[in-house]
Amino acid sequence: MTDALPIGMFDSGVGGLTVLREVMRQLPGESTVYFGDTARVPYGSKSRDVITRFSLEIGQFLLQEKVKMIVVACNTASAFALPTMRQKFKVPIVGVVAPGARAALAATQSRRIGVIGTEGTIESQAYSEAIHYLDPKAEVFGQACPLIVPLVEEGWLEKPLALEVVKEYLTPLLTNRIDSLVLGCTHYPLLKNLLGQVTGPGVKLIDSAEETARAVGQKLREDKLEAPSGSSGAMRYFYVSDAPEKFEKIGRRFLGQELPAVKRVDIGSWI
Amino acid sequence: MTDALPIGMFDSGVGGLTVLREVMRQLPGESTVYFGDTARVPYGSKSRDVITRFSLEIGQFLLQEKVKMIVVACNTASAFALPTMRQKFKVPIVGVVAPGARAALAATQSRRIGVIGTEGTIESQAYSEAIHYLDPKAEVFGQACPLIVPLVEEGWLEKPLALEVVKEYLTPLLTNRIDSLVLGCTHYPLLKNLLGQVTGPGVKLIDSAEETARAVGQKLREDKLEAPSGSSGAMRYFYVSDAPEKFEKIGRRFLGQELPAVKRVDIGSWI
Predict the structure, then answer these.
(1) Structural domain boundaries, residue B141
(2) Looking at the structure, do residues B120 and B199 belong to the same domain, yes or no?
(3) Active site residue A145
(4) Does B164 touch chain A (CB under 8 A)?
(5) Domain count, chain A
(6) Does A185 qualify as catalytic in the annotation?
(7) Is A146 on the interface with B (CB under 8 A)?
């Protein structure tokens, strides 16, 4: 059996486009509906309750758009809202945390793993739990990096102070002698070079986008939801809750190509 | 005539507490209801439409709490939402932009005025318009500083990179030979020392909190809404849309004293 319906994906903003990019690369025949919650971005500093409520509202919107699966392309929402979303919605739900945890364990030799992310992601211990579920002996060291997202959004990656910010966060983390570092926020892949400069070549950087796209492909095969192989071109839909032009402009860097028209939808009206 | 009802105030988060602090100092007999929209913070990067909608929702909430006046203790919301709020609500509405503009004009000698604020505040040209309304010959130079709010919230004011961030924003602005600088965001007063280091003593820093509290007092007198002078102690109420404990913790620095219990209210339910 196959299913031509699109895959739904969401993030608090543009970050999840790094996951979409990988899904488009690995599964080019799958249509996608992406939602960026730009009216309420960022998620990283907010509570489990509020992020769960936002995620349920967005899930509802995506289901109205007739998606066959929901990809939570946001680390904070994955850390907080997955169990509730799986209870409420019947379609399969794939997050970014479990794939990131798997990738980290595949990469590490010393089993000393660092995780950087938003305050919410780090405080939730979601990566720590996901890694320990697979390997109880691994040691996980987390570090919240709240300034990195605004730095990326400001486009200041080349400035000397970007390096200062990254050093400020990573220096204490590196004293734990980690050999792999999970980029636990979809904004961080854009800083990969800078992060690598600070960690040095002895630390592998784990970008969960690739592994998440792989998990999406596997789940589609398992549930027999793959797009028909002979189907004509995949469709791309983009929605945001605020400022579509700005999303198009910043989104390019994350998606690695131009975005088609982005529509604003009023999130208050779905409930 | 007098009115013992409280004054309503709101901001996207903790920043507006700098205005509340001044209101408490200048008008100690007035009770207050403060709302921080911590579920949707920040406002500075969002559109006029969305910020206007949020402001109307919060206004509605404050009116349910029976406030006699609404103080928009947020520069972005003042820049975007005041006209619509004044149309929809019958109570007097006081923003922070007009008082800041007046204070800048009182301070400047060269009539070359700098304004720093969020993207929304600067792009709206609200300060520029307010200043030109009072003095068409003044020259106004704006600079959006999106990284300053997260820097203040991270508590990194003493780190060398805070100085780097401030220099990055102010150096181009200072080439315009301004002699006064409006701190057009309620977070900025906490950075006053650092800003002064970069501007040097020749530039006066304008904090609109003080001037706004004065405008509130004046409006209360004009509309005969002052609290009865013999009334027993003023009441302080604090509400947020997310994470009350965090608000209490960060809020202290802005209010300059401990906060009483902060309650969370569910903003979705007012509409």
Answers:
(1) 97-207
(2) yes
(3) no
(4) yes
(5) 2
(6) yes
(7) yes
